[in-house]
Write a structure and sequence with these properties.
The chain is α+β, with helices and mostly antiparallel strands and 551 residues long. It has 3 domains: 68 residues; 133 residues; 193 residues, Orthogonal Bundle (MetI-like fold). It is built from 14 helices and 13 strands. The strands form 3 sheets. Strands 6, 7, 8, 9, 10 and 11 form a 6-stranded antiparallel beta sheet that branches. It has a 5-stranded antiparallel beta sheet with strand order 4-3-2-1-5, with no helix packed on it. β12 and β13 form a beta hairpin. The termini are far apart.
Length: 551
Amino acid sequence: MSASEGRPSLARKSGIFRSGEPFIWVTGSGLAVAVLMVFGLLWLVLANGLGFFWPADVHLFTLEDGGALAGRVAARERIPDPDAAPGTPDRWRIKVKQGNRDLTGEDFVWVDEASIRSRATPADLVVLERREWGDFYGWVKEVRDGEASLASGREASWRKVAELLPRAREVHEEALRLEKGPIGAVNFEKEKLRLERKKLELEGAAGGPKRDALDAEERALQAEYERLFTELQAVRARVKAILVLETAGGLTKELPLSQVVRADRVNGMGRLAKAGRYAANVWGFVTEDPRESNTEGGVFPAIFGTVLMVLIMSVVVTPLGVLTAFYLREYAKQGPVVSAVRIAVNNLAGVPSIVYGVFGLGFFIYFVGGSIDRLFYPEALPAPTWGTGGILWASLTLSLLTVPVVIVSAEEGLAAIPRGMREASLALGATKFETMWRVVLPAVMPSILTGLILAMARAAGEVAPLMITGVVKLAPSLPVDGFAPFFHLDRKFMHLGFHIYDVGFQSPNVDAARPMVFTTTILLILIVVALNLTAIVIRGRLRRKLRSSGI
């Protein structure tokens, strides 16, 4: 074949590459792979997380050695046997969540299927969700009130538990309200009195009428505390029932009814009843406090802390980023200095987040917070008030981390606004400030919201800087409560991202914690999506308003 015959083929190939069609296919393929990976990850999280709340049947296994075991099947796998001869049948084992950790020492146990003589799902098996030590699987033999027997036998005892449990939950909630409400308020006031007394000592006024007034107020508070504590004991004494429990292995245990959160006979429940229990479990997960090293109970404090932190961060980062963008684009004289600032802002977006955490620890906590403590809270030292991690410092740290995103987005929006709009406003007699405030800012607001959406999405998922600026494993008090000044931004807080890390990598009970990792991840994704959708809806309305006004 001559060279002239091969030229058209080469020309066609070079024409295809010049048209860019292969690169379009490569880009589309990359996008498709990325979308599949995202959906695969979501499917993995949803499949492993949503099933956690379903009240699965509890099996009763009778073993070849004569023993018995009750629990839920958590997994099934082939038993590895590399030395087995070819053709040897596979052996399988199942992981059973047997609960009863206080009696057996472990929540989960592996059982060789060959050692199982029979399995059943008795309708009278009881599942008790307890406030401590996890779930109990077995039967209620007896219900006692002191030495008096209220019910005996499995069936009669179960009916008595079903009758008494709603009252026990009401009593527990009433006691909790007393502890967090009036008793908490008295303790809060007593702590304030202690600090005021120490302040007087630092001022050299250890005695005198002020000290006498403080002593009288403290005596009144102590009397109120004793009255409330007596009332609390009376409330708790309303439920004195004791359950005598029996496991499948024949072990027995006494449990106060007040320690029971929920009680079910899941094997005897229909689909509709299980769906109702599923909804109740989901609601409890969202609204309750965590228990058992965060492996049980709910995550409400973590939800509250995450949302509040993102809101504080948004309130701080939006004006900071917008003012910086306006100055760089509208007021600053363009030159090498402004170009250097823009390069620095762009580079800040690539700084590792833990570096921001170290900066927040050194500047906000040690310098700013320590200075506030020395100036305004000397009576509390050496215990820090603001000179330690808190939700305000964590929010300010994340504001610095996300401010480059808002600046870049706002600057791009300002660059897209026609210069004629500014000139028309100035020609009509408006000042530059009025032009920026009434013309430019409304037009650039969609771009600002775009930057805020990206900032919220990143801030909600950050964990590393929070670990050294205020997040904790368990926060007994929320940053917002009914005690003046109501917003306690110096308090430490819980965060869903850190909760996932803590449960997944720091939990002493790994098998029990694994489902909590997926369920908390689902919740974090939903919160991020909800926050972003809110901002997207607002941005869409602004765009429609600007479009209708001709801007």
